[in-house]
Structure formats: structure tokens, C-alpha cells
Amino acid sequence: MFEYAPAPESRSIVDIAPSYGLFINGSFDEGKATFKTVNPATEEVLSEVALAGPEDVDRAVGAARKAYEKWSALPGAERAKYLFRIARIVQERSRELAVLESLDNGKPIRESRDVDLPLVAAHFFYYAGWADKLAYAGFGPDPRPLGVAGQVIPWNFPMLMLAWKIAPALAAGNTVVLKPAETTPLSALFFADVCRQAELPPGVVNIVTGAGDTGRYLVEHPDVAKVAFTGSTEVGRQIARSVAGTGKRLTLELGGKAANIVFDDAPIDQAVEGIVNGIFFNQGHVCCAGSRLLVQESVAEELLSSLKRRMATLRVGDPLDKNTDIGAINSAAQLAKITELSEIGANEGAERWSPPCELPDRGFWFAPTIFTGVTQAHRIAREEIFGPVLAVLTFRTPDEAIEKANNTPYGLSAGIWSDKGSRILAVADQLRAGVIWANTFNKFDPTSPFGGYKESGYGREGGRHGLEAYLA
Ligand code: NDP
To answer: pLDDT tens digits, residue range 79-97?
Structure first.
């Protein structure tokens, strides 16, 4: 492989303040305590952010409740104007936002610039279009908003998860208190500024930064009518328990252990690209990642040698470099989890392979890794690793592939690679997964509903279906 010259995106396009307060009722308040957010690629402190306690969350929910009266009474076409305005401002400021997201999260600029930010704008545009058509969404002639939505999002797609949560909530006439993840609060705080620029009425969107406890205060607040959570199955369970019996509406988007199934008639080169995109996109920090490769035995050898050749061309390093394919792992804690599960995989007898790959000295890094010889009993085949680690299993017949694919506590996504449309449809019909990609992987669109079965959660986000969670 020939060497690439560095092609770094300039970080000077975005101003990061030394500290940020909480965004409540249209302005930034000081919080009592603070925490630091770091660039996972360098461990440099980017900013200090307020840590919201119970009183802060209470103020934010109070502001959202007050704003709800007027916001919910606005004609849908008026709410749509604000959402269109937000979408346009996101587009105008997308370079700033992409750099900020890559700095705070560690994801390659190529992804934040070309995937995350265009999808964020698309979500706001899409739901802006629904705001005045709710009566035609299929939820009755006069669907009503619910009230204050308490929304808790993870660190893997900070800005995109914010868009998935806020756009449908506002379009339906709800107001919002959102808690971003502790390690990636900056793009949500930037979004607060976008709301001000769009002259969104104060209190319609409130952002409370903090750790897990802040999320807990929010979901347990009695004046929150609807809870939307994306994150780990463990925390999802705790939230389901705390919300049970309160009358609050709940959607949970949790983990996954998707099977990416390659049949012997699949176009191998395309499948290899799909496998790489399925597991190495966003460092594998993707709930719907294709983390289990199921390959038909007769083509396994050919496919694996192509895959290894392709993996050797992946560039790991500076997220702001436009040539980078794999950026930094989001946090030391996540790196420790990936490292531990990978060691368990090797100790349990699977064969580990990574291409030769130089990792930077500072920051949190993990080389792209595959495990072959994996059985269904191995922990790396059952547990969500949430990193650039692929477990490879083989199968002989379509029935065996389906059985193995469904042998998981999760059910979020799956991929099928085959030349035959009829086979794709027949297999897709028998897979228990919310999203199934055919001859592609990790493709997202605001018009398409997304969500899981079993321990992957319940409720759907995106599309017309995504409105249902915010309407009564
Ligand atoms: P969490 O589920 O802990 O985090 C998701 C969000 O929930 C964060 O904003 C977090 O805050 C918040 N939170 C944590 N505890 C509570 C609580 N008791 N009540 C309300 N909100 C809470 O995920 P982690 O970041 O700890 O990641 C752990 C594992 O979860 C990963 O290794 C991965 O396997 C999986 N994961 C799956 C995701 C998915 O999209 N399916 C996304 C993220 C993680 P804070 O960040 O401040 O702790």
C-alpha cells in the first residue's frame, strides 16, 4: 500500500469555550459542579461542563412544562418553520459541528462530515414535514402530544441520536429535556446555540449535562410524560423498572449482536466492503454493527483472505485526518471493555488476527480485529463488544444460518448477502431483527423506522412510526 500524506481538517473552524453551563429555558446557567470532557485521540481536556443535580433537572423539566403550553398549541405549520430553520442552520454550520463531533467523540471526520451531519439535517427536514400532517400519520384524526419528553442519549452518535430524539418530539408538539452522554456533551451544547439562533421559544429544548445520575433524575422526574433512551441493555432495564407503573411512555433502543450472513453466491468483493462497513464504521461503536459474520463454509476461505487483505488497508489514527478510516475509541472505560472481551475471546480458543498497524502513543486506540474459529458458546459471539472486533462463524445450509443468526438475546439488525432476491426475502422473513439490510449494511434514512426485538429494546425511531412514541 502506498503511503498517504496527512490531510488534517483544521480544528480552528470551531470555537470551544473553556466551560459550559446547563441550557435551561433558553439560556446557559452555571451548574454547581463540573466535569471535564476530553479528546479521546489525545486525552487533551477540551472543556469543562456543568454537572446537573436533581434541582437543575427539576428546573429544566419545569421550563419544558411551561413552554409546552404554548408550543403544543402552535399550529403544526408554525412548529415546522422552527424545525426547517434548525435543519438549515445545522447544514450551514455542519463543518463546525463535524469537527467538534470528531474532537469530542474520536470518530473519523470522514464519517462525522459525510454520514452523521447530513443525517442530522435530514432528520430535522423530514420531521419538519410531518409537523402539519400529524392527522394523516395513521394515529387517529387528532393525535395529541404527550408533554415533556425526557431523553437520554449515548456517546456513539451524539449529534445524530440527539436529532433522532428531538426532531420527532418537537414536530409532534412535545417539549424536551435531553441529557447527552458524559463523554460527549459538546455537540449537544452546540445544538443549544443552534436553537437560540433559530429563535426557538425558550424552554422548548433544554440540555442538561452530567453522568448516569443526571439521566436517572431525568427519567424519574414525575413531570416527565415520555422517556426515550438509547444505550446499554443494563441501564435500559433499570429505566424500564423505574418507569413501570408510572404511566410514562417509554421507548428503549438498546444493544445488538447482529449477524451479517454471507451466502456462497454473494458478490465477494462487495460483501467484504459491507463487512468492513458493518463492523469498523465508527470504531464498531454501533448498536446495529454487524459484529457476527456468518459465512457459508464453501466460500469462507476465499472471503476471509479478501477480508484480511482489505483490513490491511484500513488507516487507524488521527480522527481529523480526512484519510482516516478508524478513529479513537471513545473512552478509557470502553477501551478496557473491548480489550477484556478480546482477551476472553483468545483465551476461549478463538483465533485472533489484526493487520500490522501502528497505533498512536497517546489516546485510546484498538486495532481492527477478527476472530475466526468462533463457536456460538464463545462470549465474543454472544456479548456486545461495541468495538472494532468481528467474530466469524461458518454455516452450511440456510437453515443453519438462520438458526445461528437468531441465537442471540438481541434482535436489532442483520445483513444478508446473496445474488438471489428470493433467498434474501425468504431468509429475511425468518430473522428476528428490527432492521435487515440486503447486500448492504449500516445504511440509515430518516424515513425508515429503526428499533429492535428482545433485549434490543422496544418502540421505533425514524419514519412515520417514530412519531407514534410522541403522540397520544
Ligand atoms: P450507558 O447505557 O450507561 O449510557 C447511555 C446513556 O445513559 C448515557 O447518557 C448515560 O450517562 C446514561 N445513563 C447511565 N446510567 C443511567 C441511569 N441509571 N439512568 C438514566 N440514564 C443513565 O452506556 P455506557 O456508556 O456505560 O456503555 C456501556 C455499554 O453499553 C457499551 O460498552 C455498549 O456495549 C453499550 N452501549 C450501547 C449503545 C447502543 O446504542 N445500543 C450506546 C452506548 C453504549 P453517562 O454517559 O453520563 O454515564
So the answer is: 999 999 999 999 999 999 9
444, 133, 151, 108: which is closest to 281 by C-alpha? 108
Asked if pLDDT for residue 9 goes beyond 80, the answer is yes
Residue whose cell numbers read 462470549: 379
pLDDT tens for 130-168 read: 999 999 999 999 999 999 999 999 999 999 999 999 999
Q: Do 208 and 179 meet the contact criterion of CB atoms below 8 Å apart?
A: yes
What is the reported pLDDT for 1?
58
Closest CA to 224 of 174, 289, 158, 162: 174
pTM here?
Answer: 0.97
Among the listed residues 450, 454, 444, the one whose alpha carbon sits nearest the alpha carbon of residue 464: 450
Amino acid letter, residue 422: S
Coil, helix or strand at residue 151: strand
253 is catalytic: yes
192, amino acid identity = A
Ligand 1 centre from 331 Cα, in Å? 12
Q: What is the mean pLDDT of residues 318-324?
A: 98
DSSP state of 103: H
In order of 182, 315, 389, the CA distances from 213 in angstroms are 10, 37, 30
User: What SS3 state is found at 393?
Assistant: strand
C-alpha closest to that of 210 among 163, 150, 165, 256: 150
Q: Which residues line ligand 1 (CB under 6 A)?
A: 152-156, 179, 181-182, 211-212, 215-216, 219, 230-232, 235, 238-239, 254-255, 287, 334, 337, 384, 386
One-character DSSP codes across 410-434: --SEEEEE-S-HHHHHHHHHH---S
CA torsion, points 248, 213, 253, 62, in degrees to nearest 10?
Answer: 40
C-alpha cell at 11: 480544528
The secondary structure element, H or E, covering residue 73 is helix 54-73
Residue whose C-alpha cell reads 448516569 in the numeric block: 212
For residue 11, the 8-state DSSP code is G
Options 253, 383, 455, 468, the catalytic residue: 253
Strand order through the sheet with 224-230: 27-29, 22-24, 205-207, 175-179, 148-152, 224-230, 249-253, 457-458
Number of DSSP helices (H) and strands (E) in the chain, helices first: 16, 18
At 4, the pLDDT band (50, 70, 90 cuts) reads confident
Q: What are phi and psi of 199, to 5 degrees?
A: 55, 35
All three cell numbers of 136, joined, read 394523516
Residue nearest to atom 21 of ligand 1 (CA): 215
What is the rounded distance in angstroms from the CA atom of residue 392 to the CA atom of residue 272?
A: 13
Mean pLDDT score across all residues of the chain:
97
Q: What is the mean pLDDT of residues 102-125?
A: 98
CA dist 30 and 250 (Å) reads 30
